[in-house]
From TrEMBL:
InterPro entries: HVO_A0556-like. The lineage of its organism: Archaea, Methanobacteriati, Methanobacteriota, Stenosarchaea group, Halobacteria. This is Small CPxCG-related zinc finger protein.
Length: 60
C-alpha cells in the first residue's frame, strides 16, 4: 500500500498548478513561473498579470 502523506501545499505546488495554464486576462497569454514583488507567482508571459502569488509565511 502506498502511504499518503498529508502536508500543507507549498508555494511551489500552488504556483505549479497554474503554470502552463491560460491567462484569464488576455487571449494569448500562458502562465509561467516567476516572482512578483519577491513572492513566488504564476505570471502571464503576455500581459504580465500575476494569476497567483504566494506569500512565504513559513520563512522564519
Ligand atoms: Zn495575460
Amino acid at each position: 500500500m502506498e502511504q499518503l502523506v498529508e502536508s500543507e501545499p507549498s508555494a511551489g505546488t500552488v504556483v505549479d498548478a497554474l503554470v502552463g495554464g491560460n491567462c484569464s486576462y488576455c487571449e494569448d497569454g500562458t502562465l509561467v513561473r516567476d516572482s512578483y514583488k519577491g513572492n513566488a507567482a504564476a505570471v502571464c508571459d503576455c500581459c504580465e498579470t500575476p494569476a497567483v502569488q504566494v506569500w512565504d509565511d513559513d520563512r522564519a
